[in-house]
Structures are given as structure tokens and as C-alpha cells.
Amino acid sequence: MSGRGLSRGGAVLVAALTVDSIGNGLFLPLSLVYFRELTEVPLALLGVLLSVANVVTLPVPLWAGTLADRFGALPVVVGSQLLQAVGFLAYAWVQGPVGVLASATLVAVGVRFFWSAVFTAVADYADGSAGSWTRDTWYAVSNGARTAGLAVGGLVTGFVVADGREATYRGVAYAAAACFALAAALLAGFVRTPATRPAPGADRRADGYAGLLRDRPFLALIALNTAYAMSNMMLGLALPTVVLDDVRGPAWLTSAILAGNALTVAVLSAPVGIRAQRHRRTRTIVLAAVLYTAWGLVFATAGPGRPVLAAALLVAGALLFSAAELLHAPASAGLAAAAAPPAARGRYLAAFQYSFTIASMIAPAFFATLYEVGTAVPWLALAGVNAASILGILALERALPATALRAGADLVAPPPTTTVTSDAR
């Protein structure tokens, strides 16, 4: 793909994604607690309102993908951050159910737009970059930056919860709004990406969502990635329950393991991403699936009785999880971006995000239901799902475009017509 050397502001792009994630990290642990502390809305109603706000966003990726292909992904990301900034400003003033629903919907829509466009924006930047980093490397670095930002934001929020004053809670809302506004300003002011418009008819799959619905290999990739997305969510979702109810360990063990995971991903994303791109993306995903399988089996063996051994097993399992996450994140995003036709990449990658949306809906019920059957059952089931996915990925490898299997292979083909735009204006 032509246009390499046309992108600008790579360091600012990474910094903006970090600042964005700090804003997310500030509020991620407070989604329910914040409104419970600052409003008189009953907890049960708060849960319903926040669920409705998220359900409303389900069609957003379809719209976001179309906008990304038509106008560029970067302005969609900037717009998503501004929506979140406005939403968090509103958080500081809401009092009743209507205000809670309106502000939460603004934030949820902004979040959905962000995740539906950010991977396309990073791919666009990588394609126009003069450096040697591939899309996979940029995805790895971005993942590390986002993880670091989430960890910093979460750490700050821990002090906020300990403080407990209303003014402090409102200060978090203002700080989150400032983070998103700053991230939007950085991207709009300093980051540029090339807009690539291949000639009409260059790819029979380029007719957007209609082409996507006929693209069975890509649909299979979305389905398989749902299993990995659910695996990624399961550590944070299930670990507190496992530590307190199953292992019966100290509460700080959960925080220590999650902090260790965040630190590992933040520090090792770039070096692991650079080394992993030497191999086929599908084989890297297979290795990640093997590690997810091993993680599930290790967690299935943890239980009460020998606290030191149980804690050691949880730590060992978390290390396996971190290694799987480090491998899966850039390889899966790179594979999806490379398998998409350039003219419809925004729509394809937006649709790819439905794997995470579906996983977020399934994961809580998956864990809670199976945990009631037996404490080891959800982990054995998760290990089985990941083991079965290995056969699926290996079969899919033969159906995907050959140029999608290795990082940079799709950049060798003759370039389409490229024009440079200031995407963030």
C-alpha cells in the first residue's frame, strides 16, 4: 500500500491513546459506585439504566465503520473522545434517572465509536508510516499504552474510593473529561494519516457490509475471536470471586495479580509484538490459544486447603494469561486489518469489534452459571473452548488471503491511489 512516509505524529498517537486510557481507568471501577454515591437513584434502577445505555450502542459499530471508510478513522476517534468528554462533564451534574441515562448513553456511544474506529486509525497510521514498524507492532505498542493508562487511572481511583467525599468523586468526572478532551486535542492537532482509496472494483469484497456478509472466512474469524475476547475478559471478571470464595485467600491477592498483569502487558507489548511478527499471525494466535488453554487448566486446579500452593497456581496461571494476551492482541487485530479489503477496512474492523461486544454479554453468565455447577467447571470449559479454537484457526488459515497471514505481506502488492488528508480537522 502506498502512502508510507505520509503519516505524522506517531509518538503523539501513542501518548493520546495513553491519556484516553487514563480517563477510562479513572472511571472503570466507578460505573455504579459513582451514581450510587452522588444520586438518590436506587441501585437496581441504576443497573437497568446503565444496561440500557449500553444496549443503545449496539448499532454504533455499523455506522462508525461507514464513517471511517468515508471520512477516515481518525476524525471518528476524535469525535468519540469529545462525546466521552461531554458525557463525563454531565456526570458531575446529574441527579435523577433521566440525567443518569443521558450522560451514561453519551459516554457509552463515545466508547463504542472509539473501539469501532481506533484499530482502523492505527492501521491507517501504520500504512503511512516511514518507519520499519508494521501494523502488528503499532497494535502491540498501542495495546501496551492503553494498558498502562488503565492501570494509572485505576490506581488513582483507588485513592478516590478511600477518600469517599462527593467533591472527590466529582473531581474524577472532571479529570476523566479533561483526559478525553486532551486526547482529542492531541490527535486533532498533531496526528495525520493518509486516506487510501483503491480504485472501484479492485476487490470484489469492497462493497462494505454486503460484502462482509458474503465473506465467510472473515465471519469465521469474528466468531473465533469471540472465544479469545471472552478469555481476555475472564481474569478481571472472575478473579475476585475465585480468590475470596474458592481459594479463600487475602483480598489484596486479586489486586496484586491484576496489577502484575497490567505491568507485564504495558512493559512487554512492544518487544513481544516485534518478535511475534516474524511468524504467521495465525500461528501466533494458535500459540495464544494454547496458553489460554493452559491458563484455564491451572486455574481449575486452584482451590482451598493449601493457601500458598493456591496463590502460586493463581500467579502461574496469570502469567500464562498475560503471555497469551501479549500474543493475541496484536496478531488478531493485524490479521483482521490485513484480511479486510482496503476500501472497506473501516467497516470490517468495526464489525470485528462485535466479537468483543458479544463476549462481554456472554462472559458474566458463562462464569456465574458454570461456577454454580462446580468451581473448576468454568475454567475447564474455557480451556476446552480455546483448545477447540486451535483447529478452527488452522482450518481458517487456508481460507484467508495469503497476504494476510504475515505482517507486512499485504504491503508488497501494487499500491492503490492514495491521497493525503488531515483526518482530524
TrEMBL record:
Annotated ranges, domain Major facilitator superfamily (MFS) profile: 217-425
Membrane-spanning parts: 12-35, 41-64, 71-94, 100-126, 138-160, 172-191, 218-239, 251-272, 284-302, 308-327, 348-370, 376-396
Alphabetically ordered keywords of this record: Cell membrane, Membrane, Transmembrane, Transmembrane helix, Transport
UniProt membrane topology term: Multi-pass membrane protein
Primary localization: membrane
PROSITE patterns: MFS
Superkingdom, natural source: Bacteria
Pfam families on file: MFS_1
SUPFAM superfamilies: MFS general substrate transporter
Keyword Cell cycle assigned: no
UniProt xrefs under InterPro entries: MFS, MFS_dom, MFS_trans_sf, MFS_Transporters
Cell compartment(s), UniProt: Cell membrane
PANTHER family named in the record: MULTIDRUG RESISTANCE PROTEIN MDTH, RESISTANCE PROTEIN MDTM, PUTATIVE-RELATED-RELATED
Name of the featured protein: MFS transporter
